[in-house]
Write a structure and sequence with these properties.
The protein is an all-alpha fold. The chain is 87% helix and 0% strand. It is built from three helices and no strands. Helix 1 runs antiparallel to helix 2.
Length: 77
């Protein structure tokens, strides 16, 4: 390879590495977002299950709202 071809080759390797790093970063962001979404969904479901059990045990709706932080609409919906 002549000097110009070597420079082009080295440039293409750097560009490839940049693209690979960008893809890895985007994958990590996607995984983090998916984890956070799943965590929030699980948390909400656990709160609703707890609220349902409290209501079944005879706690008042207003007390369950205070304990869980959920709204009446969320509990009755």
């Amino acid at each position: 390879l002549n000097d110009m071809e070597k420079q082009e080759y080295e440039k293409s390797i750097l560009e490839y590495e940049d693209v690979q790093e960008a893809l890895a970063y985007q994958r990590k962001l996607g995984k983090d977002e998916g984890f956070n979404d799943g965590y929030e969904k699980g948390r909400e479901e656990a709160l609703l299950q707890t609220a349902k059990r409290l209501l079944e045990m005879g706690f008042s709706l207003s007390d369950v709202v205070k304990v869980t932080g959920l709204s009446e609409g969320e509990l009755l919906g």
